């Protein structure tokens, strides 16, 4: 009797990284469709790869080299012009775009906004929004639900409330529409960006969304002006904290335009990336019912009534591990790039001034050099200890690590745990999402699940 072949392990959806070299034109076409398409599969098995597509580039996944770029020589590896060109129309010279001294003083001024105490104070808003999400899902049963759309709704509810709790003339729908249009269209890399065309040459896609972006900025400006007149609330929200913030070294406070840009940066980043994290986490719950059941048991032991509060977040290690694993498999910022301002050496490879250094985080998180069974969904890996520093970068690392990471993780745990406490989720056959990165890594086609009330 012939020996049976071992059963092939079922893996969650992934984007197949390319195995054949791509020329310049093919690379330009690929990056417009899906940024992940320019990452070669070999980057999951080796620490560095170099090439030339218009300019010299180097992809790196080695944690020691990544540490050098993000920490040891931070000022010599600023964000690339392509990245800045994508972000600047929406969020100006905010923390996410600024470099050098201009970034440092803003970071010092904004840091107190995201202290553990302030983040904890905002958790009741997250609990209320999570419960509203439960009600919406209940109303849709028994039909299949696109949980990506639902997560966009709940995270935008949260960021709008914790940013503009006074509600002063804040048109949340207009802001949401502008953000969605920008990410879907203007956020795409332009051929002119890739070719290194000067910034003064217009990028057509970004021109098409300029009206909605201008409206979004007017709404934010009016809210800042109204808040300055009204004053802070009993529990300060993000806008109150930003207005009150100042650089402890220089005593410089943000001007209205700087407040506006950073406010919009927090709204865009805090809404989009957390929605994606939750959507991918729910996809994985539908993919692995055993892990879902274990997480639900953990939640019920901590909160029998299904009401998840900020104080309970640290008591839900498996729920947090699910989120960490979703961020590993589907990092919202799945590829970032830097420009070398000086000659250097990474992984023994010569880096010249002007070269582009790419951190393919999607490949880094699936590297066979850094992770056992890297394409599998294994949340228990996070219960066995932390990974090597600079091998896991869902929020970046070094001095420029995402300032709102603790806020996002608290929000994600509260929302995911609340939903799992109230529903059992199963996947809809034939409707798996496709990982596609434009500005962020989205589940194209949505995350369609059946929700069974418990």
Descriptive overview:
The chain has 454 residues and is of the alpha+beta class. It has a single domain, classed as Cytochrome P450 (Cytochrome p450). The protein contains 17 helices and eleven strands. Strands 1-2-7-4 form a four-stranded mixed β-sheet. A hairpin with a 2-residue loop joins strand 5 and strand 6. It starts with 23 loop residues before the first helix and ends with a strand.
Furnish the topology, listing elements before pairings:
Layout lengths: L23 H10 L14 E6 L1 E6 L2 H10 L8 H11 L8 H11 L5 H6 L1 H18 L4 E2 H17 L8 H15 L4 H4 L9 H5 L1 H21 L7 H7 L11 H32 L1 H14 L14 H13 L6 E4 L4 E3 L2 E3 L4 E4 L1 H4 L40 H18 E5 L6 E4 L3 E4 L3 E6 L1
Parallel strand pairs: 2-7
Antiparallel strand pairs: 1-2, 3-11, 4-7, 5-6, 8-11, 9-10
Helix pairs in contact: 6-7, 6-17, 7-13, 8-11, 11-13, 13-15, 13-17, 14-17
Helix % is 40-55%
CATH architecture: Orthogonal Bundle
Top CATH class? Mainly Alpha
Tell me the radius of gyration: 22 Å
Mean pLDDT over all positions:
86
What's the total number of strands?
Answer: 11
Number of helices: 17
The CATH superfamily appears as Cytochrome P450
Largest sheet: 4 strands, mixed
Low-confidence stretches: 1-6
Roughly how many Å apart are the termini?
47 Å
The CATH topology turns out to be Cytochrome p450
Quaternary state, please? Answer: single chain
Order of helices and strands: HEEHHHHHEHHHHHHHHHEEEEHHEEEE
User: Pairing-aware structural class of the strands and helices?
Assistant: alpha+beta
Strand order, biggest sheet?
Answer: 1-2-7-4
* Strand composition percent: 5-15%
């Amino acid at each position: 009797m012939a020996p049976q072949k071992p059963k092939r392990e079922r893996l969650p959806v992934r984007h197949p990284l390319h195995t054949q070299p791509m020329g310049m034109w093919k690379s330009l076409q690929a990056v417009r469709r899906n940024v992940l398409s320019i990452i070669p599969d070999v980057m999951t098995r080796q620490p560095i790869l170099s090439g030339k597509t218009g300019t010299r580039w180097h992809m790196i996944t080695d944690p020691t080299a990544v540490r050098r770029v993000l920490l040891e020589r931070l000022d010599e590896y600023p964000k690339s012009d392509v990245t800045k060109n994508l972000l600047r129309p929406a969020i100006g010279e905010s923390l996410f775009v600024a470099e050098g001294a201009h970034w440092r003083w803003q970071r010092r001024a904004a840091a107190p906004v995201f202290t553990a105490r302030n983040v904890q104070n905002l958790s009741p808003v997250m609990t209320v929004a999570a419960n509203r999400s439960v009600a919406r899902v209940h109303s849709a049963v028994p039909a299949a639900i696109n949980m990506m759309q639902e997560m966009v709704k709940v995270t935008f509810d949260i960021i709008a409330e914790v940013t503009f709790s006074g509600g002063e003339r804040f048109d949340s729908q207009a802001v949401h529409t502008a953000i969605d249009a920008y990410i879907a269209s203007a956020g795409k890399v332009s051929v002119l960006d890739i070719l290194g065309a000067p910034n003064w040459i217009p990028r057509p896609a970004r021109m098409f969304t300029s009206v909605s972006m201008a409206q979004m900025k007017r709404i934010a400006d009016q809210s800042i002006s109204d808040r300055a007149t009204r004053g802070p609330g009993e529990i300060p929200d993000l806008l109150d904290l930003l207005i009150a913030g100042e650089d402890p070294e220089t005593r410089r406070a943000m001007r209205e335009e700087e407040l506006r840009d950073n406010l919009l940066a927090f709204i865009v980043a805090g809404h989009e990336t957390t929605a994606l994290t939750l959507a991918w986490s729910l996809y994985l719950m539908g993919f692995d019912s055993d892990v879902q059941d274990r997480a639900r048991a953990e939640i019920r032991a901590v909160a029998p009534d299904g009401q998840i509060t900020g104080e309970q977040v640290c008591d839900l290690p498996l729920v947090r591990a699910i989120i960490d694993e979703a961020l590993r498999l589907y990092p919202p910022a799945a590829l970032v790039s830097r420009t070398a301002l000086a000659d250097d050496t990474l992984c023994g490879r010569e880096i010249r001034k002007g070269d582009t250094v790419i951190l393919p985080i999607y490949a880094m998180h699936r590297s066979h050099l850094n992770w056992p069974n890297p394409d599998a969904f294994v949340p228990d890996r996070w219960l066995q200890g932390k990974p090597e520093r600079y091998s896991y970068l869902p929020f970046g690392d070094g001095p420029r690590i995402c300032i709102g990471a603790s806020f996002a993780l608290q929000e994600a745990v509260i929302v995911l745990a609340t939903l799992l406490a109230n529903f059992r989720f199963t996947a809809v056959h034939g409707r798996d999402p496709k990982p596609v990165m434009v500005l962020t890594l989205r589940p194209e086609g949505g995350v369609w699940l059946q929700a069974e009330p418990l």
